[in-house]
Amino acid sequence: MERLIVAHTPLADDRLLFSKLTGSEQLSGLYCFEVELLSASNDIDIKSLLGQAMTVALNTHKETPRYLNGCVTQITLVGRETTGERYYVWLAVLRPALWYLTQNRDFRIWQEKSVPEIITELLAEHHIPFDNQLSWRYRRWNYCVQYQESDFDFISRLMEHEGIYYYFHHQLGSEVFVLADAPEAHGSLPGYEKLAYHPCEEQVAEAITRWSVTDSITPALYSHDDYDYRQPDARLLEVRQNPHSFAAGKAEVFDWPGGFTDREHGEFYARVRQQEFAARHQQISGSASALGIGAGYRFNFTQAPRPVDEGDYLTISASYKLVANAYASGSDQVAEQRINFVVVPAAVNWRPARTTRWPKTHGPQTAVVVGPRGETLWTDQYGRVKLKFRWDRHGRDDETASCWVRVSSYRAGWKYGAVQVPRIGEEVVVDFINGDPDRPIITGGVYNQQNMPPWDLPSAATRMGFMSRSSGGTMDNASFLYLDDAPGRESFAMHAERDMTISVENNLNLQVDSNSRYLIKGNRSTEVLADDDLTIDGNRHIFTKGGYSEQVVGPVSQVYQQGLLTEISSAGKKEIIHGEVSVSIEGGWQQNVSGGDIAISSPNNIHLESDSNIAINAPSLTFTTRGEACTLSGVNIGINGLDIKVNGMTAGTTLSSNEVKGVASSITGFNMSKSVVSLQTDTIKYSGSGVKLDYSSQISIFSMLHLYM
Q1: Which residues form the Gp5/Type VI secretion system Vgr protein OB-fold domain (predicted)?
Q2: How far apart are CA 111 and CA 50, in angstroms?
Q3: What are the Cα distances from residue 329, in Å, to 95, 127, 455?
């Protein structure tokens, strides 16, 4: 006799006989079937069945049988029947190949991939066949982290977030994982396109025997919002109305963060959430004897209890109880086939509920800054860096290890704040915004045995400050600023490895209570665009080994209250004055020239005037004129000398007193006149075409003077 239900196992078909099947399957869920099998002996190698495919064939009255397939994940020898043939009873648990993804736990980073692409890659790694029936276009995730969760939980939460769901298409020896997101992704099982309602299941072999319609109130409004630091003023709030809700104004769901940074993506996710609520508004539960009801498949319902209920429906869950007839007489087991189901109208765009927990980080962790080989710094316009996390065993130690990660600062504003870009190889402290592993942020840095503090600890524990390192430099190439609070050695130190620039837009006030010392090993240039005032209460010493040059465009005023001493050791002194010189001396003036001549030259007149006497004391005194006359005038003029000669074309004296004394005295000229009050000299020689000396009082001689500035 042909059996209605047959179990196909890796063993010969007659070794294990089908007895019962119970279990369930649903959209976006892993099915689980418990299959009771019978065997004539107990020498079956249980381990040979584990991990192998087992298919239960439902030989319906249609052209092709229906299959329920799964991998044997557990098998138990339950015991032995007490009646009939006393078969040995085995219980096998069947699950889909996708179930293996629940048995691992991993950390992994995905970048620039959409959720369907991530799913495709993971399924390929596990050799799971799938059928992509997705109709929507899905965004690429810049950064997506599988964080201490199984592969199954990871793709489940991503699919729930995107509104993607799945079901299984069973075949002989395998099952196909089907991805769906729209009503068009569903068809009917062959031969079960229509199912009629018959409450008395005894009359019709395959029919729907129970139909219960439930309408529920669901949230009327869904809204969510998020934030993108790259466009901080962008309005990302999205609101979606649920047209099937009867709780207008009473039930609103608001989510933050919404898990998006683009307005278009936010609108899509809001629509998905609204469809999720709408799918729960009306659900129908029922029972059937028909074997053509399965999760993910449609049927047309006819002869409904209410005409309004007739139409197309999508099965979202199904629970099976299939019992075969006894294999031997004397057993009280009778055949039974019952499927309890839940359906929604086929026009509803069903979406999965977000039931899978989104992982949360519990506190900060550390990571290492990475970048391209050969670089010491790798950043972008936001000062972000790339990280290699301790738990990332799949990524590379380069710029592809993570997304760009922001670095927190104690203050950050429009073109002001603090900036410190972590460098490649540094260990940093990482936290996560809202505990989301997809949103890391660097909050600080820590030292380790490879990267030790810049000064020795604990001996320099009183020192605090900041030390940089020249990019690509050694430990000796650094700029620093630190304070030392050691008692008696309190200090503030600052060092620039190369250049230092200090800019003050208003006043700069420096107060040094003790000494100040500057050591400049190169040149110094100071530019003062206004006045420069210098007050020194004590002495001032300037020592210049080289030359000394001053240039003043405007007038110069110097006041010395307690004398001025200028000493020039060698090379002399030269002054060039373009203009007049005026010197006013309220006291005496004495100049001593110990070596060399004194020469005064002027193209114009030279005038010496004294309210008292002018005395010249020299072994010899010579007056030479290149002009026409030389005149000496005064009340009393005395010329005394051993030899006095006056030669000229004309010799004239006009004096109140005229006295010439000497061993030899002569006045020779073409024309000589004498009008003398008094003229007296010891020795005086003068020659030339004209010399004129004019005094208002008795005059003895001219003095040749050097003016001092």
Answers
A1: 380-447
A2: 36
A3: 33, 45, 92
Round to whole Å and give the CA distance between 263 and 709: 83
Residue 591 burial by Cβ neighbours in a 10 Å radius (0-12, 13-18, 19+): exposed
Residues 6+ apart with CB under 8 A from 135: 181, 182, 184, 185
| CATH tag, 365-446 | 2.40.50.230
Is the predicted pLDDT of residue 664 greater than 70, yes or no? no
Strand order in the sheet with 238-241: 238-241, 221-224, 252-255
Does pTM surpass 0.90? no
**What are the backbone angles phi and psi of residue 608, rounded to the nearest 5°?**
-115, 130
Q: For 182-224, what is each residue's pLDDT tens digit?
A: 999 999 999 899 999 998 755 556 899 999 999 998 888 899 9
Cα gap 92→52, rounded to integer Å: 11
Burial of 488 (0-12, 13-18, 19+ CB in 10 A): exposed
pLDDT at 701: 38
C-alpha–C-alpha distance, residues 138 and 132, integer Å: 13
Alpha helices in 523-681 (DSSP H): none
The CA–CA distances, whole Å, from 680 to 632, 637, 658, 676 equal: 12, 5, 6, 10
User: Which tokens is 351 given?
Assistant: 């979406």
Element (H, E) at 5: strand 5-8
CA atoms of 286 and 207, how far apart (whole Å) = 11
Identify the DSSP state of 156. Answer: H
Q: What does the pLDDT read at residue 676?
A: 44
The rounded distance, in Å, linking the Cα atoms of 440 and 455 is 31
Cis peptide before 458 (omega within 30 of 0): yes
Torsion angle of the four alpha carbons 91, 97, 99, 101, in this order, in degrees rounded to the nearest 10: 150
- Check residue 276 and report its DSSP letter: H
What are the extents of the domains in the chain? 5-97, 100-183, 218-279, 365-446, 622-691
Please, are residues 703 and 614 in contact by the beta-carbon 8 Å criterion?
yes
Q: What is the pLDDT of residues 373-425, one digit of tens each?
A: 999 999 999 999 999 999 999 999 999 999 999 999 988 888 888 889 999 99
Give the confidence band of 591 by pLDDT, cuts at 50, 70, 90.
Answer: confident
How many other C-beta atoms can be found within 10 angstroms of the C-beta atom of residue 708? 11
CA angle 324, 294, 152 (to 5 degrees): 110
Q: For residues 87 and 81, what is the distance between their CA atoms, to the nearest angstrom?
A: 5
Instruction: Find tokens 């007895």 and name the residue.
Output: 19
Cα–Cα distance, 18 to 37 (Å, whole number)? 5
**Residue in the block written with tokens 């006043």:** 507
What is the C-alpha to C-alpha distance for residues 696 and 694, in angstroms, rounded to an integer? Answer: 7
Any residues with CB less than 8 A from the CB of 638 and at least 6 apart, and which?
657, 659, 661, 678, 679, 680, 681, 698, 700
Q: Residue 71, class by beta-carbon neighbours within 10 Å (0-12 exposed, 13-18 middle, 19+ buried)?
A: buried
Length of the chain equals: 709
Distance CA 142, CA 114 (A): 9
The CA-atom distances, in angstroms, between 170 and each of 67, 174, 175 are 6, 6, 4
Is 218-279 assigned to CATH 4.10.220.110? Answer: yes
What CATH number should be reported for the domain whose range is 100-183?
Answer: 3.55.50.10
> Is CATH 2.30.110.50 what the domain over 5-97 is classified as, yes or no?
yes
